Amino acid sequence: xxxxxxxxxxxxxxxxxxxxxxxxxxxxxxxxxxxxxxxxxxxxxxxxxxxxxxxxxxxxx
Length: 61
Description:
By secondary structure, the chain is mainly beta. The protein is built from no helices and 6 strands.
């Protein structure tokens, strides 16, 4: 996740209202935000960067 974060095997879920990442091992939500808080996304090699809030990001590959 972003700079200095941990890499965790997750499932990405996107609905009309929420974006979530669910940890496959712990079976718990490790990230969530309202879709309205997503300000953009970009491809970075094999990863998808999701920008939210005030420019924070989560990187998914």
